[in-house]
Design a protein that fits this description.
Layout (H helix, E strand, L loop, with lengths): L1 E4 L12 E3 L2 H8 L5 E3 L2 H32 L3 E6 L6 E6 L1 H10 L9 E3 L5 E3 L1 E10 L2 E11 L2
Parallel strand pairs: 4-9
Antiparallel strand pairs: 1-2, 1-3, 5-7, 6-8, 8-9
Length: 150
């Protein structure tokens, strides 16, 4: 079954992509939830016209995203948190705290777009690498140093 996605669906595609899925997944989940519509010939024509009109907006979004990626690439951020005497973090550091540190530095990044390389939560003091998905295929890599609070 061919469908047109109305919004980004993880592990499937981005908004306005035409994808092929199994009939049950499309008819019983994606379409009723409002994530997709059937890809009829008329819907494909409407989509093509909308995409042509949106092309210049897309170019500006890509340019802004690549500018942000170049500003972020290779930067190092420091996050102070409560730690034990052995260097173990009380609780853990996750992408929400990293998003807050980035927001304080002037970068508005959604927490769901931040992924630690090799780990989901950080439980030790040290330096870690995180990848930020800025736009579809544009990503930036940053270093995050976790230190103990004074």
């Amino acid at each position: 079954m061919e469908i047109i996605l109305k919004q980004d669906v993880p592990n499937l595609g981005h908004k306005d992509d035409i994808v092929t899925v199994r009939n049950g997944y499309g008819a019983n989940y994606l379409i009723p939830q409002g994530y997709a519509t059937m890809a009829t010939p008329s819907a494909k024509k409407i989509l093509a016209e909308n995409m042509r009109q949106r092309a210049h907006k897309e170019a500006k979004l890509r340019q802004d995203a690549s500018d942000m990626a170049s500003r972020l690439e290779g930067k190092q951020f420091t996050l102070a948190t409560k730690v034990s005497s052995t260097g173990k973090v009380f609780g853990s550091v996750n992408n929400i705290q990293i998003a807050d540190v980035l927001a304080a530095s002037g970068f508005e990044i959604d927490r769901r777009d931040i992924v630690f390389v090799g780990e989901s939560n950080i439980k030790q003091v040290g330096a870690y690498e995180a990848v930020i998905k800025i736009y579809r295929d544009i990503k930036a890599s940053i270093r995050v140093e976790i230190v103990g609070e004074e």
